[in-house]
Amino acid sequence: MSKIRAVITAIGGHVPDYVLTNEELSKMVDTTDEWIMTRVGIKERRILKGADKGTSDMAVEAVRQIFDKTGTKPEEIDLLICATTTPDHLFPATANIISDKLGIKNAHSFDLNAGCSGFVYALDCGSQYIEAGSKKKAIIVGADKMSSIVDYSDRATCVLFGDGAGAVLLEPTTEEFGVIDRILFSDGMGRKYLNMKAGGSVMPPSHESIDQKLHYIFQDGKHVFKHAVTCMADVSAEIMSRNNLNANDIAWLIPHQANLRIIDAVSDRMGLDKSKVMINIQRYGNTTSGTIPICLWEWENQLKKGDNIILAAFGAGFTWGAVYLRWGYG
């Protein structure tokens, strides 16, 4: 019996209309375009505006594109996983809300939080449902409204993040396409370097926690950068090695878009020419769980059937990982 693999058969994406430029940020905090570009490589980022607008609203637009492209009906979907760090509410799951807004009634759906590695973790999780034969059509979403937890008086973090969503449709195949291999890691010691201190069961919301601005992103940039470079580069090299791949075999690296210097370090370790690396951080910043699927969405028309692609990410936790997949259409 042929091995069942999970293959991506469609992509959707959405970024908000509002563009927050470095020039505008420089009027809010002590920063400049040169300072931001030199350190992280971000020129602008998209921000979701509007009352009662949340992560699910962007995700719905991304998933709706998949339905429009493929003719897939909501009732055909039997699994929806939403990778997010900024759910609409603490509960119910944002995946449940997305499903309700789209009329997806025959699926079980849940959220997955692995920080910026969320999409890679969710893709692995969803692909294993497909490989086991229990699901036939799975939607994997990566979406975040990072502007909802950014302190725009904190120069160290407010320049980094943007809002956006991407989604893919996974289906089974017995051909040599789809998810071939994955390597995922986590190390909880990283929690002290990248976190949101308040809002959970350890420190529930209070007047004091709000006054102290503990409901925003905290990041020790030096430590996060060091671990991100090492871990993303190591896991990308490892997945190439154990699948007997060299730089010539790889069509595309899709790295998490957190910092241009991290992306450069990972591609250098893999021996890849920059022409093989998807980079859009300059336009969207770090959309956390959204970065990798948004890249897939933007580059879709350049992907060719049989392309060897490596996805690599690093996020809060710490979490990190790589997925090796062979593209199934185009």
Structural description of this entry:
It is a single chain. 49% of the residues are buried. Helix content is 32%, strand content 24%. The protein is of the alpha/beta class and 330 residues long. Strand 12 and strand 13 form a beta hairpin. It has a 5-stranded mixed β-sheet with strand order 1-7-6-4-5, with helices on both faces. Strands 8-13-12-11 form a 4-stranded mixed β-sheet, sandwiched between helices. A two-stranded antiparallel sheet has the order 2-3. The protein has 2 domains: 5-175, 3-Layer(aba) Sandwich (Peroxisomal Thiolase, Chain A, domain 1), CATH 3.40.47; 180-326, Thiolase/Chalcone synthase (Peroxisomal Thiolase, Chain A, domain 1). Helix 3 (55-70) packs across helix 4 and helix 8 packs parallel to helix 9 (260-270).
Give keywords.
4-stranded mixed beta sheet, Peroxisomal Thiolase, Chain A, domain 1, 330 residues, 11 helices, single chain, alpha/beta, 2 domains
Helix/strand layout:
Layout (H helix, E strand, L loop, with lengths): L4 E10 L3 E4 H4 L7 H7 L4 E4 L7 H16 L8 E5 L10 H9 L5 E5 L5 H15 L5 E8 L9 H4 L4 E11 L4 E9 L7 E2 L11 H5 L6 E2 L1 H22 L9 E4 L4 H11 L10 H4 L6 H9 L8 E8 L3 E8 L4
Parallel strand pairs: 4-5, 4-6, 11-12
Antiparallel strand pairs: 1-7, 2-3, 6-7, 8-13, 9-10, 12-13
Helix pairs in contact: 3-4, 8-9
